[in-house]
Design brief:
With about 180 residues, the protein is mostly helical. The protein is about 65% helix and about 10% strand. It has one domain: Methane Monooxygenase Hydroxylase, Chain G, domain 1 (Up-down Bundle), CATH 1.20.58. A three-stranded antiparallel sheet has the order 2-1-3. Strand 1 (about 25-30) and strand 2 form a beta hairpin.
Length: about 180
């Protein structure tokens, strides 16, 4: 299991990239230990009135899901893609399962008339593109992700096993306000 600071970075990866793609966000938490590790509320309510909007929604959600493991590996603003890929089967297992479902939906929309092998190949290329776009976003926002995660981590001594930053705190935080005016 990841340490609490790594987990806080994971959750702030979801939060910050969620904000960047236009989702509303809520509380962020991280645990010192335990099976959950932490949470980042990303509110995915968005009007989807066309197939193109469904595709856009799925792509944005995939980027947010990938951002967790990518952010978890940040060290001095640099992410480790190899480590992040491994984390998709560890701390990001649940996120990866959701990515798989969203990719299946996108494949069925985009490549429904293709032979399955060709559809899978094209969807894999889309998935790699989305991973890379998420990695670019995590890198762009690395200072914010790491600063917010550090602040959450420092709350552990005050709050014990779990530290939480509420939606209201986050929405008013000077770093968040400056990054997402």
């Amino acid at each position: 299991m990841a340490g609490m600071l790594d987990r806080a970075q994971h959750e702030f990866g979801h939060n910050i990239v969620g904000r960047a793609v236009g989702f509303d966000t809520g509380d962020v938490s991280a645990e010192i230990s335990g099976s959950t590790g932490g949470t980042a509320a990303v509110i995915t309510n968005r009007a989807v009135t066309s197939i193109a909007e469904v595709e856009s929604f799925c792509e944005d959600r995939i980027k947010v899901l990938y951002a967790g493991v990518l952010a978890e590996t940040l060290k001095a603003g640099v992410l480790n893609q190899t480590a992040a890929i491994k984390l998709t089967q560890d701390t990001g297992r649940g996120d990866h399962m959701m990515v798989t479902q969203l990719c299946n939906l996108l494949r069925n929309i985009r490549y429904h008339s293709e032979p399955i092998a060709e559809a899978e190949k094209k969807m894999k290329a889309d998935e790699i593109r989305l991973w890379n776009e998420s990695a670019q976003m995590v890198t762009k926002y690395a200072p914010v992700i790491q600063s917010m995660a550090q602040e959450l981590y420092e709350r552990r001594s005050v709050h014990g096993k779990q530290a939480i930053m509420t939606k209201a705190e986050l929405d008013a935080h000077p770093l968040i306000v400056a990054t997402f005016p």
